[in-house]
Amino acid sequence: MYTDCWKGGDWQVEALDGGRLRVLREGTTRGGLRSRGFVLHLAPALVRHPEGWMLVDPGLEPAWIRGEEDLEFQPPESGLRQQLAERGLEPGEIGDVVLSHLDGDHASGLYDDEAEGSLFPGARVHVQRRALDWWEHRFRSKRRVRYLHRRVFDALLACEDLVIHEGTGAPARGILLRQTDGHTPGHQVTLVGEERPLVLGGDLLSTRASFREGVVADADHDAETADRQRRELLSEPASGWFLYHGLPGRRILATRTSKETEKNR
Ligand SMILES: [Zn+2]
Questions:
Q1: If you measure from the C-alpha of residue 173 to the centroid of ligand 1, how many angstroms do you get, rounded to a whole number?
Q2: CB burial of residue 97 (10 Å; 0-12, 13-18, 19+)
């Protein structure tokens, strides 16, 4: 069953609208056909847990794609700040922000271009040490780094409450972070809820296509490891999967309805 909202006990997850990113690919061919690229929907996850509110992957800050000629961004009808306001929330009430990884379509939304700093000034920001090290290395060794701007990275490093995890983390009760390096070094998935959690797979499990065995996502840094980690994740007990790049209305694939989950508690 597909949905955009999930509830398991005291934990709730709702997919917000992060807009659409079109990746243009001039001249690439697939099976002799000229590919015009593809569209990625983006879905920041708003998580309600017994201790407060959390956001997993704040999405894309439009300033991030300035100068990226093969990327076109169509912002959501209302921005992240407004979507939070519609739910009676201000950015300052988000206690924790989890970044699955630092690719701009997931992480740059942390950055408020007008304020030139974090959009969530009071939040603890959770990231894996390996992700920071990898991007630091890239910024040092390459002339041009794609998919993340230095100033977004700097704003992240400047966050007062940057929580750097090594492997696993537990940012709040019933919420676990687990490093899964296949997509990018330091990528992490988020498990929400006790017993049968909802799995927020970041870019490891980001669309329905990720469920097919042996699927090769060309954006994976280490395709073999990514495929193995997908299999492992899918074999674990879960009440569903949150698909960051899933279609609106179909961003959560729930294996049980919330009523069944309630009954079985
Ligand atoms: Zn992505």
A1: 26
A2: buried
Quickly state the pLDDT bin for 121 (edges 50, 70, 90): confident
Distance 262 CA to ligand 1 centre (A): 32
pLDDT tens digit sequence for 139-184: 999 777 877 888 888 889 988 899 999 999 999 999 999 999 989 9
- Separation of 203 CA from ligand 1 center, angstroms? 5
CA nearest to 40, candidates 24, 27, 63, 56: 24
Q: Could you tell me the distance, in angstroms and rounded to a whole number, from the CA of residue 52 to the centre of ligand 1?
A: 26
Compute the distance from residue 103 Cα to the ligand 1 centre, in Å.
Answer: 7
- Distance, CA of 231 to CA of 247 (rounded, Å): 22
Domain that holds residue 43: 2-263
Q: Compute the distance between CA of residue 2 and CA of residue 207 in angstroms, rounded to an integer.
A: 12
Tens digit of each residue's pLDDT (9 = 90 or more) over 27-51 = 555 555 556 678 999 999 999 999 9
Domain total in the chain: 1
Mean pLDDT over each residue of the chain, to the nearest integer: 89
CATH assignment at residue 241: 3.60.15.10
Residue 48's pLDDT is what?
A: 98
Q: Could you tell me the distance, in angstroms and rounded to a whole number, from the CA of residue 118 to the centre of ligand 1?
A: 20
